[in-house]
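Z., the sequence and structure:
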Amino acid sequence: MGAFMLAGGLLVIVAVIALAFSWQGRLRLHERTVTYGTEEAIKFIAARLRPETAAVIGERSVRRILEWEMRYLQDALAAAGEEPVVLGGPDAAEYVAAQTAAQGYEYAADVIDEVLELQAHYLASIGAVADAAEPEAPTGSTG
């Protein structure tokens, strides 16, 4: 009789552990994964352009601006070292303006700024933007 109770108890423990793992796995399936979709970003931005901006540029121009900004980020991150790189900052806008002009596409600064600002809104809408990180305290001894 004691052996049956011990076996039953062990069976209950194994079942509880199996249920816990199953529950944990289901939670992971429902976690939101942030994925930047270029096509979705372009459509998001194009749909939110001010009417006067939308009258001058379309989705192709939005794509071109975003592509050059991504190139800027890649180059800036490779060269930055410890320096932070800012998405959509003034340096990125100047880089985009120079590169698109070199290709024969001259966009007004306010058009580029609007596209880059709307990209920030897109990133926030998909949950890719978080609160700014607190700077780390310097390590070492204080004298």
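The two ends are 71 Å apart (CA to CA). Residues 2-30 form the longest helix (29 residues).

Let me know what you think.
H.
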